[in-house]
């Protein structure tokens, strides 16, 4: 299995000819001036275009926020008939975006993409939007992709139901947001902090934590990323014995080369 990080939380999994794309983002985010929109600002690094990858067999979207579901780039790159999975409550939204092959999925539902088993599991969005985590197993390795979840109490059940987990792709930038139109703002992080991500990976017994959702956006005072994200990840990883695998944009990790295989 090959795991490639593109930009932000966008990841591609390849296994024996099957390609699955998670949380596609391929262009700067539009519509940030709308009420209730998170203002992430312009990307601080070039975004990897979705044109650079082959058409995936399936696209898995954790939630419909534009930094995780860049629907226009998906339409432009892969067409309106690409197989798209996302939370059940967001099925109608994807259809309104122009997609014709949309399947809504709820936590604890499974489906098959060629030889790969995909499971939806629980996740908690920072602003209450419908969100799921994705667990993918190709018969040898299991990876999880957790969008931009906050801390929650489902980590133990995830490990029990789907372990052993070889790679956990977890958000790590613990941002503080000011979102215009909200009656009250929060001073708490809208997704996992570096330390929380390492704790989650430890509970999951993940062999590797691949950090996502950091380094691309920082737009004070509207979107303030946590400071020293990578340094804090490495420090806490060393303290808890969690292996941190940093992937730069367009960098791959070949699981078969470095991770012992499991019969489960």
TrEMBL record:
One Pfam family here: Lactamase_B_2
Gene3D superfamilies membership: Ribonuclease Z/Hydroxyacylglutathione hydrolase-like
Signal peptide range: none
Segments forming domain Metallo-beta-lactamase: 20-214
Superkingdom: Bacteria
InterPro entries (alphabetical): Metallo-B-lactamas, RibonucZ/Hydroxyglut_hydro, UPF0173_UPF0282_UlaG_hydrolase
Identification of the protein by name: MBL fold metallo-hydrolase
Lineage of the organism: Bacteria, Bacillati, Bacillota, Bacilli, Bacillales
